[in-house]
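Continuing from the previous page...

OK, I double-checked the sequence for MarR family winged helix-turn-helix transcriptional regulator against my notes and this is the correct one:
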Amino acid sequence: MARRPLILDDFIPYRLSVTSNLVSDTIARTYEALFGLTIPEWRLVAVIAERDGITQQAIGATTRMDKVTVSRAAIALVDRGLLARMANPDDRRSHLLRLTGPGQELYAAVAPQAIALERRIFAGFAPAEIAAFTAMLRRIEAAALALDATGDAP
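Thanks. Re-ran it with the corrected sequence; updated structure tokens here:
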């Protein structure tokens, strides 16, 4: 069987990356302009809003952000008074992060904007297409995680 040449524009991992970067850049401009947040900062706020009292390590595992990015975002949010660090009773080497009152207010203001932006991006797609796309993204994620777990990925 003949190998097909790599055509970057048709290479699905490349298309995923380009599309993800484009969507993230659009969102980043919106969050920066309206709320002074970077994408990593917003991800921390959103994850912490959903899982109050979470460690930076757990945030990194959930979001797939590296620990330096998570740490910098957490420091910036603590400095702005949006997050509080609490002692972790289960592990003295780590802290639990929680939204402060202003952090909860910020989340309450940003979340509807995030949903509205998502609606605008996907307005031209039928609900069934969006559901199928979301399901496929989850399957791709699971397949990539499985490759990573087995060591088959370089």
